[in-house]
What does this fold into?
Amino acid sequence: MKNFVHANALKLEEIGERIRLRRKKLKYTLEDIEKATGISRKTLIKLEKGGDVRFSTLTTVLSILGLTLDWSDQTKYMFSDRLGNSNDGWY
It folds into this structure.
């Protein structure tokens, strides 16, 4: 299986940095996020440093910060192409 990385795709480190900047802009501490989500401070630090965390952790933190992931047409195309051009509406 080929390893696909789109030229404009964000790296985990960039996602983590954007999460950290948004958290600070909202004046939330790591403890605030921990209390609101139940996600440990250690995991939040790992996320902000670009570490590998569960998808549910990422989406929970994004949600609490008012951020979303971009499921653009390019992303949909990449996924459908990797799945044999099926368009079963899962995305």
User: Anything to note?
Assistant: The first helix runs from residue 12 to 25.
